[in-house]
Amino acid sequence: MESAYNHIEIGLVLLLGAAFVTPAFAQPAPLVGAAAFGDWRADKPGVIRLIRPEDLPKPGATPSAANASRVVRRPPSATLQVPAGFKIELFAEGLSGPRQMRVAPNGDIFIAETGPGRIRVLRAADGGAKPSVDQIYAGGLHQPFGIAFFPNGENPQWVYVADTDRVVRFPYRNGDLKPTDKPEIVVAKLPHSYGHSTRDIAFTQDNKRMLVSVGSESNDAEGMGKPPDGLPSWAGQHPLGASWGSESDRADVLVFDPDGKNPGVFATGIRNCVGLAVHPKTGDFYCSTNERDGLGDNLVPDYVTRIREGAFYGWPWYYIGGNEDPHYTGQRPDLKGKVTVPDVLLQAHSASLGLTFYNGNAFPAEYAGDGFAAEHGSWNRSLRTGYKVIRIRLKDGVPTGEYQDFVTGFVINDTEVWGRPVGVAVAHDGALLISEDGNGTIWRITH
Q1: pLDDT by residue (tens digit) across 139-166?
Q2: CA atoms within 13 A on the CB side of 14
Q3: Three-class DSSP category at 36
Q4: Model-level pTM?
Q5: How confident is the model over 212-227, as pLDDT tens digits?
Q6: Angle 284-288-290 (CA atoms, 0-180°, nearest 5)?
Q7: Distances from the Cα of 165 to the Cαs of 73, 212, 306, in angstroms?
Q8: Domain ranges of the chain
Q9: Domain spanning 37-446, CATH architecture
Q10: Strand, coil or helix: what is 267?
Q11: Which is nearest to 347 in space by CA: 398, 381, 307, 317?
């Protein structure tokens, strides 16, 4: 990010000579309106975007594009870009589709390798640029994604894993590199794995409740059918905006006791909350969300948002507040005005995945408590977007609505990419870790 002195400070520097004057760093103005809907060519560290609900185009303003990227081997000349003052280096390679990451209290890094059905653990001493231990923690899992240590604090007793169809936990003590016993099934059945298969998991700060995110089966509830016993009966007996049929308990964040009892629904209408995270200061739960495809290049924005208990976020009938999905015109007037607008709108089709909040002390103070989200990259946009890591800016614990490019350089050209970011995590030494499943690597960012 570039910085500048204002005129007064320049005068003071000239007047005082060698005297030290603290500069006021100027933030670049955010891209807004049509300028915020750019593509990968405009991406670079420090670029800020602010997408507002009033800036959204009409459905079908552009055709729906099928434009999948081709993932190629990382070129020897490939260089990732980070803001001035930061350094990024390869931390680990040769992994099999590394996805979500979580850091244990002792600093070990747990990584879900979803395809092979296993959890890998890496260990590096504080300040270590490469892992000294790399081994499989547990295998035989069912498309694992979410990982959480419980209870919160320095001495967890369990490591929980969210498979696509269940939640299991392993007995755990700091430093364990292998489970001491077979997994215990905590939630025996989550909605089936058709469609969106990732399940993330997090606990309230008081350790009393467990949240599990479950994405929709479909893009836009095409096969949901009609509610049993009619809409008035269904709406009267289920949470606000709850879906039914093949989408029952999907596009939701579910809630349980830590032992899997007392199941319920925490929030609804969130099409695919891939990354579920808790803010370390406020305790707010956040979702990093993939929205629906098929409505044009710039609809519907993905988003990162606080999720409130009992809130409805629109899918499939509405999006970004009171905007009615054209496939469902007039079908749910009872929900008009009851849709919660997300906090931070992202470029549509970015495929926002992993999410974390910076709780280390190695980055500049202005980063404390800000979010980082991994944008896996578009396939349903004529001009490619995503394929980067962004910073979610907060002020006094509340998102500003702006987001900022933090790591770019995974895109080679209009058709080829070499990396697709998935997980983000803060290492024990304050470095930021990024996993990408295109070439199976993990990257480490220091300041």
Answers
A1: 999 999 999 999 999 999 999 999 999 9
A2: 7
A3: helix
A4: 0.93
A5: 999 999 999 999 999 9
A6: 145
A7: 32, 11, 25
A8: 1-29, 37-446
A9: 6 Propeller (2.120)
A10: strand
A11: 381
